[in-house]
Amino acid sequence: MGHLNGISLLPSRGAVLAACLLCLPIAHAQAPSGAHNELVRKYSDLLLLQAGDYSSVQVGEGLLSDALAPQFQSAMKKVGSYPFDRPGELVKFVIKFDAETELTDAQREDEEAHEAFLNLFSRTMPLLAYAYNTPGTGAVQNPYFQNESVAQAYIRALEYCYGRGITEDAWLPDHAGRASAQALALGLVRRSGDLSTVSLRLGGFIQSVFLMREPLSKAGLLDKYRAVVRNLVVNHGALYHAFFPYARRDAGIKYEFPLPVEEWHYLNADGVRLFVDFFWPYFMLVEDETERRRMSAVLWRVIATNMAVKPGVQGTIKPDGTAFHHLTAYMGAYGPFTLESFAQLLYLAKGVGCYAQENVDAVKLAVESYRVMIQKYSSSPALQGRFPRGNDSRAAAAISKAMALLGHLEGPGDSQMKARFLEFFDERQLSEAEAGRPFYAGSRGVPIRGLGIYRLISELRSSGGAAAETPSGV
Q1: I need a surface site. Which of 49, 170, 184, 450 has the fewest CB within 10 A?
Q2: Dihedral of the CA atoms 161, 252, 278, 349 (nearest 10)?
């Protein structure tokens, strides 16, 4: 916990209690224990392949042998060769050195060590978790599945990360590092790691704790890392608007306190993607009933506030369905990935009773608008925001996944989105290894976003029904 000029950054008890009252009217949205267990199962199935999937999904054994197995092998090799040096030295990911100034040997060594540590927790550890939880098949074995040496390698790396400062007190007020730098200049004392400039790249780490919950529980470490994950979610600066009733004051150090009412629970396109990647695995780890009620209330408020049509330049979905970010259209960049996140959240949250049909309709409007504006797989540079040469194949895969998640019966089960998926999806996207990669791969610290999407696509395609008509216009 930080202090600024000797003053605690914690809000007053009265302010916290008043803010918490915001959530009381919707506390009934909490899923009972049995339903919560079903949500855990559903999330696990979305992340992981099952043994029977190899014979039923189109990519089958090739996905394991050609795409996943080499990554699992590489992760085991990398964790085995990692030096685990600087134990107990709190890491400080802050604004980098001036690029125009030649680095000293010590600065260069620090940068290289920081980059290696970042790769350890943002890529190697998530891949270890998938290696441990991905079953093999008769023709293609996964020697790392349920392998105790993998679990021990993961736990060793996790404990090392804790010693370096990824703890229940780690500090991550913004992803640019400016808030951190300003606070330090004013006298902030950091008592754990400073993750400011890598705070967007913790999704795979959080996901891995969920995936490795059984080995962690067996080792007596699950409660410890549940608390760590809670800090990375609830006290994350980019998510402060969602969690401000429960966050430490230092998480919102760059924001006005208390937040203006019009900003409550609002997340931009970055925040939405982080919310899904960070919040849901933590939510699935929660066992305390009071905390579960609080987080259920947050979920309801975030969906209601953000899965909505918003005029003006703030918010994601405009009245014509255009997806916005940074005050302009981002149809080939942030937009489709945010819509995929919206759809994934609606899919996962079905059964909690925390969204309305109008939230589904808003996302549908945006997906349909994307389909018309982009046509098939080519978007105008004028719609790409600051990425005029954006990756159209990745964007198309994200929209295909959004349609599938909205149309599947385990999600909203929307028949129009199912028909649109059947019209838009091109199976050649999956038949070629590199073209199919966007269906399972993530970005920004999430090396694998989920493998179960292949199962959902296969089930949707085999369930019958006519494809929608191809839209016209632009």
Answers
A1: 184
A2: 150
**What percent of the chain is predicted at pLDDT more than 90?**
61
DSSP SS3 for 241: helix
Which value, to the nearest 10 degrees, does the dihedral of the CA atoms of residues 217, 222, 223, 225 take?
170
Rounded mean pLDDT, 266-288: 95
Nearest to 136 by CA among 87, 69, 83: 69
pTM of the model: 0.91
Helix extents (H) in 277-387: 280-285, 289-306, 334-349, 357-374
Residue 374 has pLDDT above 60, yes or no: yes
Name residues whose C-beta falls within 8 Å of residue 359's C-beta, 6 or more positions apart in sequence. 303, 304, 307, 308, 346
pLDDT top residue among 432 and 392: 392
SS3 336: helix
Q: Measured between alpha carbons, how far is 281 from 314 in angstroms, rounded to an integer?
A: 27
Residue pLDDT, tens place only, 230-262: 999 999 999 999 999 999 988 998 898 899 999
Answer yes or no: are the C-beta atoms of 250 and 173 closer than 8 Å.
yes
CB-based contacts of 265, cutoff 8 Å, min separation 6: 241, 242, 298, 301, 302, 304, 305, 306
Q: Burial, 368: exposed, middle or buried (Cβ in 10 Å; 0-12, 13-18, 19+)?
A: middle
Taking the C-alpha atoms of residue 108 and residue 87, their distance in angstroms, rounded to an integer, is 19
CB neighbours of residue 426 within 10 Å: 12
**Closest to 273 in 3D by CA, of 343, 331, 354:** 343
- Over residues 107-127, the mean pLDDT reads 95
Alpha-carbon distances of 369 from 28, 396, 407, rounded to whole Å:
34, 13, 17
Render pLDDT for 66-88 as a digit per residue (tens, 0 to 9): 889 999 999 999 999 999 999 99
Contact 42, 268 (CB under 8 A): no
